[in-house]
Records
---
Amino acid sequence: MRMSNVVMTTTKMVSPFLVTYSIYIMIYGHISPGGGFQAGVILAVSVILLLTAHGYEEMEKKFTESQFKIIESIMGIAILILVSIGILFGGMFYNYINRGTFGLPFSGGIIPLFNIFVGFKVGAGFMVVYYILTRWSEGD
Amino acid sequence: MKRVIALIIVLFLAYMLLPLEYSRSEDMGSYEHYIDNWEEIGTSNLVMGILADWRLYDSAIEAMIFFTGILGAYLILEEKNHEDE
């Protein structure tokens, strides 16, 4: 099911900005308000906008469900590995990367990496849930 | 019998949990600890510092809980999708 021409053009214009904003929140999550989870939700919304406007059947070919599943699984494993490497440096969940200058993007040790991984994982996870629910409600 | 056991559990939990004090304490509270050791974390966003450094075990396992939730939704709803066919 497709929406009208106006909605399709508007979502095409808006969603790149949403992706940029989401990446900004991911990278600057430890300096300004924000974080991984919120960035992931915005990332998922940018794709859901396109999906609802252009119709499920057409967009399913461009954003396949399996690629979201692969991203989510890889990011889940990456979070576990990132967190477990701390065992070598003193303990599980230990922040082992050198903390840089206060207030710069490269500061806080593993916090920015953790934010980025959680952002992609949550975004892909919401997309998988959206696909499942869409298929369930449309019944195909 | 079940009701008596439930009543005993509720009274025990009330006895344990009601005296807990959540006000900001002067010397030993976690609030003071977070504010005093802010420089130790090195991020200007203190909420992210608490969530992703002091409480990293909570946040990391929370991501795994989200994964488990998606797995549950997939198992239940995909089963229904296949039943329709």
---
Amino acid sequence: MSLSKQEMAATVARDIPPGAFVNLGIGQPTLVADHLFPDAGVVLHTENGMLNMGRAATGGPEDPVDGDLTNAGKQPVTELPGSSYFDSAASFAMMRGGHLDVCVLGAFQVSAAGDLANWHTGEPDAIPAVGGAMDLAIGAKSVFVMMTLFARDGAPKLVPHCTYPLTGVGCVDRIYTDLATFELTAAGVVVRETFGITYDELAGRLEVPLRR
Amino acid sequence: MKVCATAGEAVAGIADGSTVLVGGFGMAGMPVHLIDALIEQGAADLTIVSNNAGNGDTGLAALLARGRVRKVICSFPRQHDSWVFDGLYRSGRIELELVPQGNLAERMRAAGAGIGAFFSPTGAGTPLAEGKETREIDGRIYVLEYPIKGDVALVGAHRADRMGNLVYRKTARNFGPVMATAAATVIVQVSEVVETGDLDPEAIVTPSIYVDRVVSVGTVAG
């Protein structure tokens, strides 16, 4: 069986070391937070200026919605003991300076060499918006991508070369998909695990040379 | 440093053609009262530097809708409620300079810190670095980025004292402290102005040297 979004998120969460400082990108990667063990001491960073971000605010008496406390997706969130706040320049210095251990991002495409495309479809009428994607892509010590392996039209998203505009060059370390987990190494694309598909079937559906 | 009685008094004198740095990440830290006062004040042909390009029909979006903005420098204009910007952009009535968020913050930090330019790894090899000078340093490609300096900064903070020292609240801090260093005239809206000495000197985020005008709008909780 291929993995559901929640199962993909659990697979990513399993590979995040205890005590790591982690940024979870907007969209699917935020699901990873639900699968981290509270006693693992993972500290979540949000690029709008907070460390040790808590879960989403529900608006109940325990966690009221506060317009001054949001995540990078502008959704209301909560504080945890040990949270800290800082300005945007410090937040991105933290990222660019290599102080974050892991960031988890979504993607349109990833190339075999680890190039990432996740900010712009390149369509002429699309309004471009980049946010912190380019800073995140090149900043964290490890960059994990979480995505379905094939687009809705069936096209593979792990490709020899990205055709969408790039977010970062050679920056992705691992790709977590519904059908397989890949490690991008100097020696090539290594398949770590498959889900509901054999290695040979996988190799047949991708144009990227794979290794076991 | 001047404590102003009204937001209108605080934004007086902003000239046509100014570059205006506007704080906030979405609505958190957005100096809405100052933007409304700027709409009222009438300055036009503005360049706005802000993380986003307006939400809904109020604040920055309202300034844009009145045709008073020539150019927006931001990281993330496209949002579910950015229809005002989207319409202007699609019809070619506004110029956009798209800047990765960390480069946006650092370019203003550089302006405030007297740095002539800097090499950033962010954006290297992407369309946003096209035409920019690059350099390989220790085996990595960096892109030359220039400072962004404002004529005016409009900042939303939590409390000010009468000297202009500022503290912020939670993630509403975001671009405020860096914008406060990067503009010739820094105008701040706060929820409360307290007496000098009432803010803990250890906890002040923006020291008074950066702040020119403060107005209390008395709305924020906490």
